[in-house]
Design brief:
The protein is α+β, with helices and mostly antiparallel strands and 136 residues long. The protein starts with 16 loop residues before the first strand and ends with a helix. The protein has helices at 78-91, 109-126, 128-133, and strands at 17-25, 28-37, 40-46, 54-58, 67-72, 94-100. A hairpin with a 2-residue loop joins strand 2 and strand 3. It is globular. The chain has a six-stranded mixed β-sheet.
């Protein structure tokens, strides 16, 4: 039986690498979930298990600024947007970020950003599977 499906090639589905942990950021315990796929980074960080202020960013290309879009809007999207753009540019990957901090925790933002960048850098340095997924 010869049909037009002969030329279809099955491509393996990339299995995401998921890293979960808790850490203190400026004396506040924050939960983190990172997921790495084929040139895609997902970051969730928060003090409560809610998806909030979710932003997607694409890395800059050809001298153009990185682009971002808010998927879920909240009162303050600036942290998620800033992190998504910076991570997208640093790792040349489409990046999704959701950060959920309680009201009045704005002072924790800098410590949270530093923790996220440090942890992702450590994961990339230690894990060949993540390096491969990000094409580094």
């Amino acid at each position: 039986n010869n049909n037009n499906n002969n030329n279809i090639e099955e491509m393996p589905t990339p299995i995401p690498v998921v890293v979960k942990f808790s850490a203190k950021a400026a004396d506040v315990v924050v939960e983190f979930v990172f997921m790495f796929m084929d040139r895609i980074i997902y970051v969730w960080a928060g003090v409560s298990p809610h998806l909030d202020s979710w932003t997607m960013a694409l890395p800059s290309r050809n001298g153009l600024a990185s682009q971002s879009a808010t998927i879920i809007k909240s009162d303050d999207d600036s942290l998620s947007e800033s992190l998504a753009k910076r991570l997208a540019n640093k790792y040349s990957a489409q990046t999704f970020v959701s950060c959920k901090l309680a009201k009045g925790m704005e002072t924790v933002q800098l410590a949270l950003e530093k923790k996220i960048f440090f942890q992702i850098k450590s994961i990339v340095e230690e894990r060949e599977d993540v390096k491969s997924l990000l094409a580094l």
